[in-house]
Amino acid sequence: EAGALWGGRFAGGPSPELAALSKSTQFDWQLAAYDIAGSRAHAKALAAAGYLAPDELDGMLAALDALDADVASGAFEAAESDEDVHSALERGLIERAGTELGGKLRAGRSRNDQIATLVRLYLRDHAGAIAERIIALIDAIAAQADAHPAAILPGRTHLQHAQPVLLAHHLLAHCWPLVRDLERLADWDARANVSPYGSGALAGSTLGLDPMLVARELGFARSSENSIDGTAARDVVAEFAYVAAQVGVDLSRFAEEIILWNTREFGFVTLDDSYSTGSSIMPQKKNPDIAELTRGKAGRLIGNLTGLLSTLKGLPLAYNRDLQEDKEPVFDAVTTLEVVLPAFTGMVATMRFHTDRMAELAPQGFSLATDVAEWLVKQRVPFRDAHEITGNLVKYAEERGIELSEVDDAGLASVSPHLTPEVRSVLTIEGSVASRDNVGGTAPQRVAEQLAALTERVRAV
Ligand code: ARG
């Protein structure tokens, strides 16, 4: 059987049905370059332990380099009969190094420790690329905040007008979760930075190979302290899927707002034509598909995480073939983020804000009522009474169909003697925003400091 890694004790080859179910080259081929890197490192460990003579090591490394080049160029591909990437590459190695030399490489390793190592190599590589794309998005959001230092947005809770805030403050509120996602990726890497190579099938090896030699060659800081854990654990893979899902959810919440802001009713933003789509029937339509796809892909990323956790839930130690199902969810998570993040970033970078419209709506809905209540507190009215008085003022204005700033002196006095005309000093959106000047508040000076702190945090990751 060409390429099979097992078969000695079998009467014949696998049935076509088994082969079809078992086959994984259609997705694990993405690990080919990492598999070859692992083989180079393993060859060095075999040589260090005396199982390959120096010239054999040279021949092995040359054959692996040739195979690597042929994989990269597409000259070497998985064959129909190859069960997985490991079988295919051993076939390719033997074609290049001969049966005798090529047949020596597999000593002391198992596909179980190989695959556990390769997934980590793949994820650590892509985590770097994803982190860069997250940073690009943070930069794009922060640049919009920086470009609109004075714009005021109706801040909402329960989607109802609550208190005016700076647009920049709101935009930066979408940056902080992404900063934490970056930090999560960095934290994750501390746990992913361990090589399972050397764990063998589950119990280690009798050959005296040095797992740390392989770990160092592959850029890991340590090798697994327990060979069973090394081959059977996938929590590091699931944790990556969680971080990817969290990024998806963080983007999705912003996406939802952009979709709302882009409606005629809100009218807060216009999306650039090159980041919008049309309708096949309604000629006037311009749709926020990037934001919608981002929101939709968040569901997919959550599905990848829950699917993977479900696969792991009932598995006894050590390796079980179920573990082959760990790869497609995280590969999909990586590909999904790698297409979503740049599109979302482009949309945000080119989005135009209609700050007049935001400013017009910001004071509506009695969003300055808290300012009135806190002004009363500054006049030494107990907050309980201040809250009650302001509530009465809101009722007074609502009954007359006017805003708080439009209540005249007599009206104010009729609600409460504490409501002197001076209260109007806090009834502007600019004054309201400027007066929330505690650390973390929405006052322009604080938001400028926040932007600087954010930039610093991103640089420190
Ligand atoms: N393709 C398998 C996986 O992805 C690795 C091979 C281990 N196979 C085995 N029969 N022990 O997990």
UniProtKB/TrEMBL annotation:
Pfam families the UniProt entry points to: ASL_C2 (PF14698), Lyase_1 (PF00206)
Record key words, sorted: Amino-acid biosynthesis, Arginine biosynthesis, Cytoplasm, Lyase
Residue ranges annotated for the Argininosuccinate lyase C-terminal domain, each copy included: 366-434
GO BP terms, alphabetized: L-arginine biosynthetic process via ornithine
Family membership noted in the UniProt record: Belongs to the lyase 1 family. Argininosuccinate lyase subfamily.
Catalytic activity: 2-(N(omega)-L-arginino)succinate = fumarate + L-arginine
EC number: 4.3.2.1
Enzyme class (EC, first level): lyase
Keyword Amino-acid biosynthesis part of the UniProt annotation: yes
Record-given protein name: Argininosuccinate lyase
A Gene Ontology cellular-component term: cytosol
Localization terms from the record: Cytoplasm
Main location: cytoplasm
Protein's pathway: Amino-acid biosynthesis; L-arginine biosynthesis; L-arginine from L-ornithine and carbamoyl phosphate: step 3/3
Coiled coil: none
Gene that encodes the chain: argH
Domain Fumarate lyase N-terminal: 14-303
Endoplasmic reticulum recorded as keyword: no
Molecular function per GO: argininosuccinate lyase activity
